[in-house]
Amino acid sequence: MNDKSFKKYVGISIPKIDDLSLACGTARYTSDYAIGVRGLLHLAFAYSDVPHAKITNIDVSEAFSVSGVVDIFTYENTPKTLYTTAGQGYPEPSPYDTRMFNQIVRYVREPIAAVLAESWDTAERAAKKIKAEFEPLTALFDPEEAMNDGAPKIHGGDDHVKLPVTYKPDRNIAGEVDFSYGNVIAAFNNAELTEEATYTTHCESHCAMEPHSAVALFDERGRLVIYATTQVPFHARRSIARITGIPAHKIRVIKPRLGGGFGSKQEIILEPYVAFAAWKHQRPVRCELRRKDVITMSRMRHQMHIHIRSAFDAEGKINALDMNDLMNSGAYGSHALTVLSNAASKVLPLFNKIENVNFTGYSVYTNLPTGGAYRGSGATQGFFALNQHIDTICRRLKLDMPEYVKEWHIKEGETSAVFEEVGEGTEGVDQVIKSCKLSQCIDIGVEKISWKEKRNKRERCGDWVRGVGMAVSMQGSAIPMVDMASAAIKMQDDGSCQLYVGATDTGTGSDTVLAQIAAETLQIPVEKVLVLSSDTDLTPFDTGAYASSTTYLSGSAVMKAALDLADQIRKAAALMLECPASEIHLQDGCAVSDAGSGVKISYAKIASDSFYSNNQRQLQAVASAVASESPAPFAAQFAEVAVDVRKGRVKVIKFVSVVDCGQAINPNLAEGQIHGAVLNGISWTLNEHHIFDNNGSITTNSLWDYKIPTIPDVPEMQVIIVPSYEPSGPYGAKSVSEVAINGPAPAIANAIFDAIGVRLYDLPFTPEKVWKAIKIKVN
User: Could you tell me which residues come within 8 angstroms of residue 590 by beta carbon, excluding any fewer than 6 positions away?
Assistant: First the structure.
């Protein structure tokens, strides 16, 4: 499928095709499509102020008395259809455990009603006048307590799963993963040495620049057109129809420019509400969440407790590994199984030579806001624990961690039993690693961070002590045997091509990358590939932008379609040149004869001939790609930190990321993804921290209280991409968007230990926690 002899448009850092429109402010985001719309209505929510209760009465009379209120929706007058907000394949592996409005509320600021009004201000004012009476139910905030015998049940009744996966609402278990191979018990019984620890990660908000928004309009034929901040437009369309009862053929979903997603917009949050309200009143409707409601009502990274126990010998060979994960799903089970699965499936294969492995994981309902997909999606939590565990073993045995990892990590031509045991909320798929340059990544990182010069040196300047640490990780590229992408491409009469892709550009530049793949295959300039994406009416199906799938899977579909079109171009040129198609190659927008004369015909002339000659037809192609495997990108990441031993402050001085993502189609865009992921990971490690009160309410529900990084927080960052070639990917490419978020937390933790000899197990590393750990060590 792939040819290594390219270099014209692939592997080149061209500007994003939408750069100018973004810079000039002409790019249109979801809420822009509500500007100037006649008769526009606005939707605003009323929220619960209790964490767990049954609504016994909801009084909307005062709200209805507000001038400009058109309608009010509650559990009493909206569809009772159960669904999952999680967008991933179909049937989804997540439980169907929510409705548009639930009579039982399960977390503070869960929507209990929505006001439809002539203005947003009116809708918000009226929403505050809705009065609900509750029958309190016992709230559970600790997942361990929620699993206890006799604990109150958060879910039950008709809640169910569509797939044959474990779902135990009677024990508050939203998802479960359990597998074992080898003989773990015997390996521990015969162990020379063991190591055991528990690591805790915290929840995190996505903080995408654009808040969740949806606008429902009507076209001239009365069909519903929904503009939405979504990563999964086709899933949104299917879900809207099922939830509201509106016929699917009457619904069109369009994803315009998107101001970031990171997994938060892989959920169906606002779309059913605007669709239902618009359809009922036959008027356009807009809804946009304020930041505090994005934080509580959308999704966040799952909290997780990871317990690891290992058995190893004096040379460092790990003979057995036992990992137990307990994940806080929050009030609903969105991605409860998939994220938990990734904590095993994306993590454990990295050290594939461990012969005896046991993994047990539970995703547990509580009365906190709901967890969901977030960049790294379970692997980030798992690698935080595993990398610290490996560092601990290396220090006990006085081994060099870079050399240790190089000896024991998975390599090209190897597999892991984990691949077949578990997938991403599905059964696993047996696969062999075909591209892996992790050892080279480690060597480069060791040099760039000055590992040998700085490790174990504990250089001190006043109260500040320096140290270095490392972490390694892998991820995946799409979900095998689940994800599918399609592309269509047609030639225009000037020789340019229109590329239609269902893939969703979330701001990553995927439209540009897919245009480069088409341009390389057809040998035309990228500016002659006109991309239309993410429109359920006009573009072919794509499962969506998640699981690091777009470059690898959607790119494969684009390449297949472009190869088909290229073949048609050669055949059309062959008729015009009166020679076999096999003797024609494509170059610089022309079909060129391989004969000595080298006669060439431009694509414009070929297209014109195809449109208007006796061989009239449209040169076009459509293709689909299904992931049969999920090739892993790899990262070696190194941190240099300084720790203030008097105040507990931690500064990241330098961070180096060396990444194998196959052939980077657009190196600048790939590096940008790595930079963003690293800064995201550093902030999660040191700054971002939600605080809940005794009622389970988030007190850090604004960007004033919830600390995300600003320019002064950015350390020196160095990114190096190590080329490899993935045979199953388009032009050797595999994913890059998630893998680099997995290393910052453990690399920083290991660097802190290198600096002050204190092991930190509980994220985030706030000054208070670091200071207390230092005091414990001293005492």
Answer: 600, 601, 602, 603
What angle, 0 to 180 degrees and rounded to 10, lies between the N-to-C axes of helices 667-686 and 744-756? 50
State pLDDT tens for residues 42-52. 999 999 999 99
Determine the Cα–Cα distance for residues 383 and 719; give it in Å rounded to an integer: 20
The CA distance from 348 to 306, in Å, is: 13
Question: How far is it, in rounded angstroms, from Cα 360 to Cα 421?
Answer: 12
Note the pLDDT tens digit of each residue in 351-375: 999 999 999 999 999 999 999 999 9
Burial class (CB in 10 A: 0-12, 13-18, 19+), 596: exposed
Cα-Cα-Cα-Cα dihedral sign, residues 38, 41, 42, 43: negative
| Crossing angle of helices 401-408 and 438-448, rounded to 10° | 170
Are 502 and 533 in contact by the 8 Å Cβ rule? The answer is yes
This model's pTM is above 0.85: yes
Burial class (CB in 10 A: 0-12, 13-18, 19+), 270: buried
Amino acid letter for position 354: I
DSSP H helices, 699-766, are 744-756
The answer to whether the beta carbons of residues 743 and 637 sit under 8 Å apart is yes
Determine contact, residues 329/370, Cβ cutoff 8 Å.
yes
For residue 4, CA distances in Å to 7, 320, 374, 729 come to 9, 40, 34, 12
* Structural tokens at position 506: 């979330």
- Backbone dihedral angles phi then psi of residue 641, each to the nearest 5 degrees: -125, 160
